[in-house]
Amino acid sequence: MVKNPIKMSSRQKFSPMMKKRELQILAGCMAVTLVLGTIHSFSVFLIPLETLLTATRAAVSMLYSVALVFLTLAVLWGYRIYSAANPAWLVLFACTAAATALLIAAQSTSWLMWMLCYSVAFGLANGLGYGFVLQLSGAELGEKAGLGMAMVTAAYAVGSIVASLILPAILTNYGLVSAVNALAVSIAAGGIIAAGLLYFSNSHYNRTNDTAQISTDSTRMKAIVWWWLAYGCSVFAGLMAIGHAAGIIHLLEGDYSTATRGAVFIGVGSALGGFLTGLRISPQNLKQFITALPILSAVVLILLTMAATSTVAIALLSVVGFSYGALIALYPYAIRLHFGAQQSAKIYGQIFTAWGVAGLAGPVSAGWLYDRFSAYTVALVIAASLAVLSTLVFYRCCRFQNHGTAT
User: Fold this and answer.
1) Rounded mean pLDDT of the chain?
2) I want to staple 336 with a disulfide (CB 3.0 to 4.6 A). Which of 38, 197, 277, 344 is the partner?
3) C-alpha span between 89 and 163 (Å, rounded)
4) What angle in degrees, to the nearest 10, is found between the helix axes of 310-339 and 145-174?
5) Is 189 exposed, middle or buried (0-12, 13-18, 19+ CB in 10 A)?
6) pLDDT in tens, 188-211
């Protein structure tokens, strides 16, 4: 039994009671994830990049998939440098590196150069910035750590929504190079704003104040494996739906414009899931949220196999997005409480690799199953089954006690 050193009120509220310094830190962290979340708007570049690079759909799609791999690697290893630099300078570096990578990519017509700049460099910078501000918000916001981490994660989803709405207009009127350049400038500007907020708030990342640890290495590693499985299964459905939302909607006689607009609703649902659970999150209700939300996804996915119209599909997919957004906001906080603040950055990076695996396996397997059966029914049933498995694994092996201690 591990005692949790972080004492929380029964309900967290985003209110004027949050100190000015805490608000500055939260705003700075959210500014970073807001601009870096634009990586998930890659689909708007899909067709223009096919033309620019004279590449196949599979080759262009690989740019995004590999970017997610390097994003995951940056989150996995980023904890090694979080405390080595001032937070303001670290977020400025991450956003500047991301923007520079995009600017260089925009000038190239080579698929290999896009792979190096977008997939590798932009992916690494994105993961460094995202992983750092997520842990910084948890470390600096004290009793409001759960709220802060949820808001920072939700802002990441908002970034993808905003970019998906704005970038198509720039692409249509000014072309791909201008759209990528605009994205780079926005990321650089977000980094400058975030750096200023963190600098004047005198924020610092300190992971030495924790006393809670799993008792032995073998016990800890066993726990990490179970949490990895629970987390990966829980996000599989959301990542699969995000990757194939437009296809699912289009299959139900929705035209292409309806399908693409409908796909945005998943992002809206994801952002709402993060924000709303952030307002309600506490050690007392974490277990209920983390076990109930995958069941909600499973039920909705089964209903989706019976959907008869594109409107119903959009509504159901939005609920899947809501559940996904809530879960990716809840897990970092739950990991912090279970494993302790000193261990959380490293262990979250290890468990986060499950997200990377699900991000590759979910969309790819759904595409393969669709090609085989000309329908998404089998893929949806598999995703629903994994969601249920997530609940069973978490309930059995990643138990979280109502009084704020983990077992």
Assistant:
1) 86
2) 344
3) 25
4) 140
5) middle
6) 999 999 999 999 999 988 764 444
Token digits of residue 70: 């390097």
Q: What is the C-alpha to C-alpha distance for residues 356 and 131, in angstroms, rounded to an integer?
A: 13
Taking each helix axis from N to C end, the angle separating 123-140 and 57-77, rounded to the nearest 10 degrees, works out to 40
The answer to whether residue 213 scores a pLDDT higher than 80 is: no
Q: What are the tokens at 3?
A: 């005692």
Are 11 and 282 in contact, with CB atoms under 8 Å apart? Answer: yes
87, 136 in Cβ contact below 8 A? yes
The model's pTM? 0.85
DSSP-H helix ranges across 56-122: 57-77, 87-106, 111-114
Query: Any bridge partners for residue 400, and if so which?
Result: 406
Residue range 249-277, pLDDT digits in tens: 878 766 666 766 776 888 899 999 999 99
Nearest one of 232, 252, 250, 229 to 362, comparing CA atoms: 232
Beta carbons of 122 and 105 less than 8 angstroms apart: yes
How many residues in the chain?
Answer: 407
pLDDT of 218 > 50? The answer is yes
For 17, the 3-state DSSP assignment is coil
What pLDDT, on a 0 to 100 scale, did the predictor assign at position 249?
A: 81
pLDDT tens figures, 27-40: 999 999 999 999 98
First to last CA, the chain: 5
Tokens of 176: 């791909």
Q: What is the separation of C-alpha 367 from the centre of its chain, rounded to a whole number of angstroms?
A: 21
Distances (CA, A) of 48 to 56, 62, 154, 164, 174: 11, 15, 28, 14, 12
DSSP assignment of 150-215: HHHHHHHHHHHHHHHHHHHHHHHHH-HHHHHHHHHHHHHHHHHHHHHHHHHTT------S-----S
Q: Tokens 């500055």 sit at which residue?
A: 24
